[in-house]
Design brief:
This protein is of the alpha/beta class and 281 residues long. Helices cover 31% and strands 16% of the residues. 40% of the residues are buried.
Length: 281
């Protein structure tokens, strides 16, 4: 039995099928973790959703910002698709309702203490402990799975508030949680979120640090797996130092789709789609 964590698929069905073939995936034996952003920008989001949903207990996926965007577009008639979105086939599919209901019930955070890994789409604020992360993810998941989820989808967009306070008003609190779990990359040196900058570490970003490099970050026992940041490349030394492993290798932007075997750290990649590289949002 092996457990493979896979980077942002974003509708690249053929790349995912090639990757599963490369790792000789056997659903009776192996398990798959997906870091979110199953859909959008790639050529076959519908096929990706159907495939991963059909894997049932063989796969776990956390929600990404593009997955939440699909839910918002599907359930809020005032929410328009963005330029470059490739969600129309999902929205027109005969099994649309079943797929969206399944997606709405995916977690924001996944942890396996026995393996020593946890997984989130984007990042975690510096002050949250492992116990707090689990509780706050559950809080957001409960809203998304509840009767008022459409109201949540309408108010989740926006860049503020930029810092955590347990006493935040309900809507601000949920928006902050959403931005951390699904959108964060850089923070200001005092820990406040900065959600506009998308460049990698080779580009100077005065006054900003990647969320995992903040000096006062709470360090849990697990290595954090995350996606969302296609321009980010870390050395193995950096991964070890900060106890993180980024898995978004830009499959939808002409890069690769990557799987990490959690038991021994082996990485396997296949070519992504043939789109020209461009920043993610």
């Amino acid at each position: 039995m092996a457990t493979y964590a896979i980077g942002d698929v974003q509708g690249c069905l053929q790349s995912l099928l090639s990757l599963l073939d490369r790792i000789d995936f056997d659903r009776a034996r192996d398990r798959l973790w997906f870091v979110g952003d199953l859909v959008n920008r790639g050529p076959d989001s519908l096929g990706v959703l159907r495939l991963i949903r059909d894997l049932a207990d063989c796969a776990v996926t956390v929600l990404g910002n593009h997955d939440l965007h699909l839910l918002a577009v599907a359930h809020d008639p005032t929410r328009r698709q963005k330029r470059g979105d490739t969600l129309r086939e999902v929205l027109a599919a005969p099994d649309r309702s079943a797929l969206l209901e399944w997606l709405r019930h995916r977690p924001l955070y996944h942890r396996d203490p026995a393996l020593g890994f946890c997984m989130v789409h984007a990042g975690l604020p510096r002050q949250w402990s492992t116990v707090e992360v689990s509780a706050l993810a559950h809080e957001l998941e409960s809203v998304l799975r509840g009767e008022s989820f459409v109201s949540f989808l309408r108010m989740m967009y926006g860049d503020g508030p930029d810092d955590w306070d347990a006493g935040l008003p309900p809507d601000d609190r949920l928006r902050y949680l959403t931005n951390c779990f699904t959108r964060m990359r850089y923070c200001r040196t005092d820990g406040r979120l900065e959600l506009k900058t998308k460049v990698g570490l080779t580009t100077p970003t005065p006054g900003l640090l990647p969320w995992f490099m903040l000096a006062d970050r709470t360090r849990g026992p697990d290595t954090i797996l995350f996606g969302h940041w296609s321009t980010l490349r870390l050395t193995r030394e950096q991964e070890h130092k900060y106890n993180v492993i980024p898995l978004d290798t830009g499959a939808v932007w002409g890069g690769a789709l990557t799987a990490l075997r959690l038991e021994d750290g082996m990485r396997i990649s296949v070519p992504g789609s043939r789109k020209s590289p461009r920043p993610l949002d």
